[in-house]
Amino acid sequence: MKYRIYGKVVGSKYIGEVEASSEEEAIEKGWELDEACVCLCHQCSKECEDPEISDLIAEPEEDG
Question: To bridge 40 with a disulfide, which of 20, 26, 32, 45 should be the other Cys (CB 3.0-4.6 Å)?
Answer without folding.
Answer: 45
